[in-house]
Write a structure and sequence with these properties.
Keywords: Oxidoreductase. By secondary structure, the chain is of the alpha/beta class. It has two domains: 155 residues, Rossmann fold (3-Layer(aba) Sandwich); 117 residues, N-(1-d-carboxylethyl)-l-norvaline Dehydrogenase, domain 2, CATH 1.10.1040. 49% of the residues lie in helices and 12% in strands. The structure holds ligand FVH.
Length: 291
């Protein structure tokens, strides 16, 4: 977008922590912004920044061709969409609410039935990161709509189109958040163990951060193994990890902590070993995660 081109108007539905950050970023980038929230009081701070508050979702939708939606969940989105009905015709709905691929496909079908273009999105940022260098959003769905509004989406951070299947952004979002939740669960267990021996969390934070950072450098190698099916390792085998896990369960039990975190991992390692994969790396376990 050239410096002199007018910025398209954007309406933001949902002014929770994230919706407020999104609306504020659009305002700062020079877009005319209309905002709506179920509890009207939340429009106040954005109105003070220059946004136009709308009393009804339908009024906000009427104000802009691009409608960005960020609500608690896709059940709420569906409820709000149902109140709008045919008033979304001709609009682009960019729904950045966390949800499932199936919900995204259903909302895209609903939008198509009502004459709107639909983009689903997964926000890879927390509110204070929005518009900063590390924030980006996965999008999927109507490619023409994405290309039309890509310069506007740049106000939020990076914009990564993952495909025309509306469910793809949610798949990417959920995959990355799965990695995050796995990390958090591990970190919480680490703090819990340290606390049983009066090691303060602050004392563990530095080494834990360094260690997790070092381990993250292996993700690319794991990806190559998973895509090629070649899991033989010169780093750390199924056999050695299988031998180590009982040390964790024994220690956690002895310290009065639950061992539930380790049980699924132990079960996967046992199955991999029984299937003859003791010399493979942990990437092999991906093959055992089917239901
Ligand atoms: N906050 C974060 O760090 C994450 C980062 C990644 C993306 N997530 C997802 O973004 C969605 C919104 O999250 P949020 O943090 O803004 O959530 P809240 O501050 O709790 O705001 C929720 C808004 O949803 C409105 N709302 C709830 N139910 C309904 C409904 N039935 N009809 C209409 N609006 C509804 C709520 O309105 P109100 O309670 O203020 O009246 C808020 O505007 C979410 O999917 C995250 O997973 C955020």
């Amino acid at each position: 977008m050239s410096a002199s081109a007018p910025r398209p108007a954007v309406s933001v539905l949902g002014l929770g922590l994230m919706g407020t950050a999104l609306a504020s970023a659009f305002l700062k980038a020079g877009h005319p912004v209309t905002v709506w929230n179920r509890s009207h009081a939340k429009t106040g701070p954005l109105a003070a920044q220059g946004a136009t508050p709308a009393a009804k979702a339908a009024d906000a939708v009427a104000a802009s061709d691009l409608v960005v939606v960020c609500l608690l969940d896709n059940g709420s989105v569906r409820e709000v969409f149902e109140t709008l009905g045919g008033r979304v015709a001709g609009k682009t709905l960019a729904n950045l609410t966390n949800g499932t691929p199936q919900q995204a496909r259903e909302l895209a079908a609903w939008a198509a039935e009502h004459g709107a273009r639909y983009l689903d999105g997964g926000i890879m940022a927390v509110p204070h990161m929005i518009a900063g260098p590390h924030a980006y959003v996965f999008y999927s769905g109507d490619q023409e709509a994405f290309e039309t509004y890509e310069p506007a989406f740049a106000a939020l951070g990076g914009a990564r189109f993952t495909g025309t299947d509306p469910g793809f952004a949610a798949v990417h979002d959920l995959a990355l958040l799965t990695g995050m939740y796995g990390m958090y669960m591990g970190v919480l267990q680490a703090f819990a163990l340290a606390r049983t021996e009066n090691i303060p969390a602050a004392g563990l934070a530095g080494p834990l951060t360094e260690w997790i950072g070092a381990m993250l450098t292996g993700i690319g190698q794991d990806a190559e193994a998973i895509d090629s099916g070649e899991h033989l390792t010169d780093v750390s085998s199924i056999a050695v990890n299988r031998a180590a896990i009982p040390n964790f369960t024994a220690t956690f039990r002895a310290q009065g902590l639950t061992t539930a975190f380790f049980e699924p991992l132990q079960e996967l390692l046992d199955r991999a070993a029984e299937d003859g994969h003791e010399a493979d790396g942990l990437s092999r376990l991906v093959d055992l995660l089917g239901t």
